[in-house]
Amino acid sequence: MRILVTGADGFIGKNLCLRLREQGYSDGILPVKRDTSAKVLREYAAAADFAFHLAGVNRPRDHSDFVEGNVDFTAALCAAFAGRGRQVPIAFTSSIQATFDTPYGRSKRDAETVLRRYAAATGAVLYVMRLPNVFGKWAKPRYNSVVATFCHNIARNLPIHIHDALAAVKLVYIDDVVERLVGLLGTPSIAGDFVDVGPVYESTVGDLAATLQTFVDSRRSLVIPAVGTGFLRALYATYVSYLPPASFAYEVPRHGDSRGIFVEMLKTADSGQFSYFTANPGVTRGEHYHHSKTEKFLVVTGTALFRFRNMDTGETHEVAAVGGDGRIVETIPGWAHDVTNVGDGELAVVSWANEVFDRGRPDTVRMKVAS
Questions:
Q1: C-beta contacts of 159-166 below 8 A and 24+ residues apart
Q2: Residue 104 falls in the annotated catalytic set
Q3: How confident is the model over 222-247, as a mean pLDDT?
Q4: Which range (104-108, 129-133, 170-174) has the least confidence?
Q5: Which neighbouring-strand residues pair with 347?
Q6: From 44, 104, 118, 239, active-site residue
Q7: Fewest CB within a 10 Å sphere: which of 28, 37, 174, 322?
Q8: pLDDT at position 85, please?
Q9: Mean pLDDT in residue range 235-243
Q10: Domains in the chain, ordered, with CATH?
């Protein structure tokens, strides 16, 4: 399949072309950019089996550029297809502002009209996707979206300007847009031509800025928000994509003594924390019990002996673990436990606790395992 992509060097275009290459279309992409000549556009139109029309103008120096970039270019694209007698399906990224009586809104609405005339005249399938504010990696700050501007500035410790913190914003994530677009390649004609994309997230400018600030603060506090699903997942991925290379790495506190080192890596709001520790040969660590807290230990390097003693019955138990075995050892409430490096080299262990350590209520009672 030969796929024409207008705006291939733009925000959505870059993400779409990357996904198309992942899907095996590397040799079939026909990229149309700002400097693509009319001759090349006609050649691409003659070869294309499908078209993603992503190109457009949304922040011109003059309002007349809206008509030239959004309407006239769309007409030229349709003429290129019609001139070759092609019934090429077109997916068009319009805007929810197409319903607004603004220069930009009118230009997107008029572009839709041009495309519908082409579809009616040729019998080609048309998909119109009216998008809200799209956010994600590679959006241009101060151009594509407020999210891009905020992420770029906050990641560089630059000020952001909020005119109305309560202003509502509707957002859709670039990966969801791209997935919907790629899915259209195998989609037959639909009733009407509007194509939904989602989920659509709703926020305010003030809440957006505050959430992004929590991502910055997490490197200091080590407490990461719930960035594994939904809006926070998408927003966090977007934020870190704007980090300059010099900020890819950061330091966390490291506590060391003659036994080895202990480092807290990451804390969560409701799912505990991750740490790691080392122990020199012959060193024993732990020697305590918990009432409710549980921990999981994974030996990365070295050889460890975990010992347990039930604080009620006195029952004892031992577990040996060797680095690389992929064996998790879990501590049990009410059992005193320790871990001893019984190897010749350094012992390194990654640990997870189901709750963040609270110095006020540590739920950690000193107790030797051996009586």
A1: 160/209, 162/205, 162/206, 162/209, 163/205, 164/205, 165/204, 165/205, 165/206, 165/209, 166/204, 166/205, 166/206
A2: yes
A3: 97
A4: 104-108
A5: 279
A6: 104
A7: 37
A8: 76
A9: 98
A10: 3-131 (3.40.50.720), 135-171+202-250 (3.40.50.720), 254-366 (2.60.120.10)
